Amino acid sequence: SSTKVNGSARFVIEGEGANTIFKVDDVGDIYAWKTLDREEKSIYHLRAQIFDKITNKQLEPTSEFEIKLNDVNDNAPRFTHSIYNGSVKEMSKPGTTVLQVIAVDPDDSSVSGHARVTYSIIKGGENFHIDLDTGIITSSNILDREQQKTYELVVKAKDMPGYEGGFSSTASVIITLEDINDNAATFTKKHYTISVLEDKPIRSEAGMLQIEDKDEPQNTNPMFSFVKRDFRDLFDVVSDNITKNAIIVLKQPLDYEKVKMYTMEVEVTEITTVPPGKREVQGNTRAMVFLNVLDVDEPPVFQRPSYFFSIFENASLGTHVGTVSAEDPDEAQKIVRYSINGGNVVTINKDSGSIKTSNNLDREMNAWHNITITAVEDGPGGKESTVSMFLKVLDINDNSPILDYENDLFVCANARPGKVIKTIAASDKDEMTTGQKISFYLDHAHSNFSLVDNHDNTANITLKQGGFNPDEKKTYFLPVVISDNGRPQLISTYTLNIVVCGCDANEIYSCTGDYAKTGVSGHALAVILLCIVVLVITLLIAMRRNIKKDSLATLGKSSGEIHEQLVSYDEEGGGEMDTNGYDVSVLNSARHNSMRPRPEAQPGPCLYATVQKPAAKGEMAVMIEVKKDEADHDRDGIPYDTLHIYGYEGSESLAGSLSSLESASSDSDLDYDFLNDWGPRFNTLAELY
């Protein structure tokens, strides 16, 4: 300061460490009151002021200054890790880098030697070298993992290079050698003995040959082979995925009775990273294997894996089919017995294995028979085995051809000559092999129809002459003969009915007799059903009224009398056509006959009638006789004879209405005029409605 300082001045400092680390006295000297460490803080920034002690007036402007600490070598270098781990592959060339160690000195690097670090190996440096300045560690020799796996080093870092003084520190370095496949696998023994059962399954392990390899498992890749090729078809030798040992595998089944022991030589080889000749293989690369086959009680063995026999159908019982044979493969050569499991078409001789028929064989029912035959060793606990036998039933011509269509045929009355009426087909249950066919022909010539064989098991029925008159003849009979060409030849005869029908322009058949017209509309069918319902209701009403009348008549009869009663029903039927089946004049006379009481009868409302037997034995007459006979011989019924005569007569019957109830049909709003267009069969129905 330019101001002259005297005893009246007072000094004041402010800033980093003021009045704590640093203090100023009355004359302006600054002192350090604590130990200073440059590595913690190297520069302090402060401000200084001067005041008059009396007036407390600042004598000079505030001035700034800094205090800088000078470095001394008071810190040792420090490694970033206390223990370093590194690795290098075995057999690496000298000079291969392993790892780098790093040490840091916190002293001022601007001061010569204070922060400069140098490296050295103070322990285990026989096989490694460390760079003095960088700390990179390299190998100095070729190393073998199989001799030593790990190496432990101690490295030192020191400052003030070139001076005996200074500070230093140490760290540990562990170096591991990585394995490579540099050693070949060898057998642990020169001779191996293996025992295996003869029933060992194929592709299973027969035995194991142990090996040794100094390399780690991931670098052990042995390959095995038989020195001689004699056993390569029987056995295979492979490496186990985990242990790498040699595994002998069966490729074919063993048979103690044929070969009891196998002697083979196995060789092991391995490709390594060491060039051939650089390292001599130590150990057994070949080994002798003695494989003993152990005997097992085996089941009988059939001469064939399966049997196939054939026989003609309908062969007589006891016909020889074939013979099966099985033997005990063991040295004991036990006797073998045979049996059949299921099936009743053949039998087998338990001693010889001869098979004969025991039932009739029909190829058309079953052309193949699958039979299981069992062979079992004689004696307790005998082993057994089975074999399949396939029996084919050969065909003989024992079935006549069959016509596939036997329904009636229809032909239009106005059909032209040459018209194909129907193509008929035939089949044969016998085996239709190549060349087998069915022939068609007529039993005798027909003037109206012809039969043309199509030579494909079908034939056409063709019209020779046209212009039929349905009123003269409605049905023609056509005798058709079909035959096969088997030995012996079989023939079938069929008679086909050909019905003549009226046809419209679209050849829609309109047949009379028992054949109804096709194509009736739904409306017409509904009308027919309605008519049937009305008739049924009318019949039920009439029956109910007659039952009431019968009950009244029964009340007036004496219990000791036997009466005959005629109950008539006026039930309408199909019309005038029914008159052909029964002489209704008899019923008519019965209806108009005067009803008179019998002299011995008690007064009552009972009616009696005398019925004369009709001359013609029609259906109605037979029914009357049956009913009367049943009533006369019914011992359990009440002592009354009730004769129910069912005369289904129409409105135009000669007897007229047989009903005394005079039942009337109900009126309907429907228009039934279309019934007049249905033809003569529906004339009666049209008049009723």
Describe the structure.
By secondary structure, the protein is mostly beta strands. 9% of the residues lie in helices and 35% in strands. Strands 34, 36, 39, 40 and 41 form a 5-stranded mixed sheet that branches. Strands 7-14-13-10 form a 4-stranded mixed sheet, with no helix packed on it. Strands 16-23-22-19 form a 4-stranded mixed sheet, with no helix packed on it. A hairpin with a 5-residue loop joins strand 40 (491-503) and strand 41 (509-510). Its main location: other. Cadherins are calcium-dependent cell adhesion proteins. It is found in: Cell junction, Adherens junction; Cell membrane.
Structural category: mainly beta
Share of helix, binned: under 10%
Uncertain segments of ≥5 residues (pLDDT<50)?
513-522, 552-565, 576-617, 648-655, 660-667
* Strand content bin: 35-45%
Globular, elongated, flat, extended or rod-shaped: what is the shape? Answer: elongated
Radius of gyration: 65 Å
Q: Tell me the distance between the termini.
A: 156 Å
**What is the typical, i.e. mean, pLDDT?**
79
Number of strands: 43
Q: Biggest sheet: strands, sense, closure?
A: 5 strands, mixed
**Count of helices?**
4
Protein name: Cadherin-5
Keywords: Calcium, Cell adhesion, Cell junction, Cell membrane, Cleavage on pair of basic residues, Glycoprotein, Membrane, Metal-binding, Repeat, Signal, Transmembrane, Transmembrane helix
Domain Cadherin: 6-79, 80-187, 188-302, 303-403, 411-509
Function: Cadherins are calcium-dependent cell adhesion proteins.
